[in-house]
Amino acid sequence: MASFSETETAFPSFALGRHDRLRARVKKPKAKKKTLYFPDKAAQHLEAMPKKPPAPRFVPTHLTQEASWLLFNRRVLEQTRRPDFPLLERLRFLAIWASNLDEFFSARISRAFAEERGSPSYLALMNEAQDQAEEAGKLYLEFLKALVGLGLHILEPSQLTKAEKQYFGAYLAEEVAPLTDLIRPEALPELASQALYFASGEGLLQHLIRLPESVPRLLEVPGREGGFVRLGALVRMRSDLFLPGNQKLPLYEFRLIRLAQLARSRADWDELPEALETRLDGQVSHLELEEDFPPLWAETIRVALGLEPPEVFQLPPPLDLSFVATIVAHGPEAERFKPIVIQKPKGFAKDPFGYLNRRDLLLYHPFEDYAAVEAFAQMAVRDPKVEALRATLYRIGDENGIAQSLIEAAKAGKDVAVLLEGRARFDELANLEWSLRFAGAGVRVLPLPSKKVHAKALYVRRAGSEYVHLGTGNYNPVNGRLYTDLSLFTAHPVLTADVRAFFEALEHQQAPVLSTMRTASFIRDLLLESIQAEAHKKGEIILKFNHLTDPPILQALEEALNRGARVHLIIRSTLTTLWEGVEVKSLVGRFLEHARVAAFKNKGKWRVWAGSADLMPRNLDRRYELFFPILDARAKRKVLEILQAQLADDRNSFILLPKGMERRWGGKRDGQRLG
């Protein structure tokens, strides 16, 4: 295993744009220095000639968006090696990596799959993804050995006692076999995305078995504390229960992933159920086969699914390592992170409106209580002076305190309306259910505009006064414990008026026009103007985002760098331009970095903005986000302190440079803390 001191990893060629790859292969000879002497008249003539602008000091290296995201997932995989993380938490990152790779092939690969399939850059993506998958398989085997020390064992069927085998035989017959599909090979083109399959036959491929998704992939062994056995291994042991004629034949594991096809633009909620029914009808983008899969069968499946050989990975079983999350859930508390001490804002929950009449409140989750957001909504329900509530809801989960408060408020006769975003990828079904619950309680569900609404805003009107919550994260209690996000509560008139105007525009199906805050492409305009204003030797810019891929913003940053500005970037996942000499930081640690912040030092004073938007063309051109200024001096200082702590972090950092990634672990400065 590699040392945990600072290490450097070169960017593979797949991450570079074409011009950068060409430039990397050509070494220019160094020019010899010469001293030139001129007669006085010649020197005067040269001084009179117009001077050429200085050559750019910061030359860009471009990465594709897909390549940059894969490198982020490699950083996630690296967390399994963290010496300062408990064993189960390192194992959790293996499950996160596996889920991320599925998302890559179901969503993030779609542009490259449509436009670059078969090209050298696309093949390099496949090579990087397969390299990660092979490394993950080796890490899984290392974890199996380490788990023994915790009294946790993932057993093979051969390690079970006779009685245990008899029990699982009965379990398979009673609980699994009735839910298992037996499929003819002719149906290969219709196989489902991300399900686990087995192939079998005598000579030719004859049978396909689809394991039920409702049965856990990992089962506890009764009476053997800490003992588990994989469902797939048990099915292999008793293939006679799943094949016709009670045949006992070898089974070979495989799975596939389809592109998630869901229309980006729909008229309204009425069309969502039909769209969901056909979501997984997208083209197959990826196939995984166990390494001993019969070659003839492998070729049969590949051709039937329309895949090219590099899109097929042959890996040691078990496939889809996300099931290790079960081990994490059952393991001892001593091998998990210790709970953090969550701070609660004094006096806010009891009287949020009185508090906000005096000053703004800015919270940094999860270190400061996300429950304060839910309490704000709950107090609005109970307060008889509250007349109206509005909310944007995106990924809110199955159980949600804020959504329930909105339902209670509507039942109490208050005017309640929500923009429930039905196009939140992979959360559409849950949001469809919420839309029915809202409608049944009298909550007005606003029509979906042409642009997706990704803004995070909660508006309350009380006795003629207005109060709002603005956030960088979703109104989701689970995310509130796991994501680092900012919450701003304010009664500042310019902000509350903009939030009211935002909801009024959505209700009337109009484009929002705001005076102080920014939405849609006006966020780009704000950032370009702010970057250009600091494009000088005394200028300073800090951008903290999950993704930064917008070409105009990247170009503006480059121009600011070449004019002498100091630019600090904290980019968690995707960044498509890097510059030699510019330290770009990616924080990957215990919590998912999720806050989006921009800070500009204008004439010695900082201007700070935060919001829901990442700096990608889709967020700025095809979504209604909200970007808001931090006006309160105390709140502004707090955000700047958080940014400075993250810039100084040497515990959770990867430094991204054109030449590669450099880990900064093991230090004393933890930027994923408050204070």
TrEMBL record:
SUPFAM superfamilies assigned: Phospholipase D/nuclease (SSF56024), PHP14-like (SSF143724), PPK N-terminal domain-like (SSF140356)
Q: What class of enzyme is it?
A: transferase
Record domain Polyphosphate kinase N-terminal: where = 64-113
Recall the GO molecular function terms of this protein's record: polyphosphate kinase activity
UniProt KW Endoplasmic reticulum keyword: no
Record bears the keyword Transferase: yes
Q: Where is the Polyphosphate kinase C-terminal domain?
A: 353-510, 522-663
PANTHER family per the record?
Answer: POLYPHOSPHATE KINASE (PTHR30218:SF0)
- Protein name (record): ATP-polyphosphate phosphotransferase
Q: Which organism is it from?
A: Meiothermus hypogaeus
